[in-house]
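Researcher: Here's the sequence for the chain we discussed earlier.
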Amino acid sequence: MNELHTRCLDLFPEWLRALATDAGELSKLLASTDVPEGTRRYVAGGLNYLFKSLDLIPDGIEDLGFLDDAFVIRVAAALSIREAPAGGETPAVLTRLAADTKVIADLLGKDYARLESYVKTLTRGVARGRTVEEILHDETIRAAFLHEVSGWAASYETPSFSRDEKNLVKLQSFLGAKLPA
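Model: Thanks. This is the structure I predict for it:
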């Protein structure tokens, strides 16, 4: 097993265990008027992805179902820093999640650019009938959305993730097939 695969097999279970906490921390940024709108736009797109009915990897797929969610919020964090730089200090949760994208990029290779492009489209996407624009600009919708994120985080049960290299191959195959060209 190569070093990258060993690192992924060590990290991915941690990312799955932390997914609900990460979503909660990101929702605090979305609720804050001190965070610039460009940053909040990517955060909203990443969090709204959690509720997308047709995401890249169906949530019920054993071992992999929530890894795409973990990947998307990390890429959204990186994009929020790079493309919508905040004036002042970058929130620690964004810095931490964005740092993880190096591992994702190394694992996905050429498909990482497609994942980034996909995450950018989420800022214009719709999930459960609400757009990112509505989440950002309608206080009632934002409050309901934040409540829904909180409920999701409270009910989230960490899925299994077997330390099997075949899971990485399946993950790469899923994303390679499902990411828009």
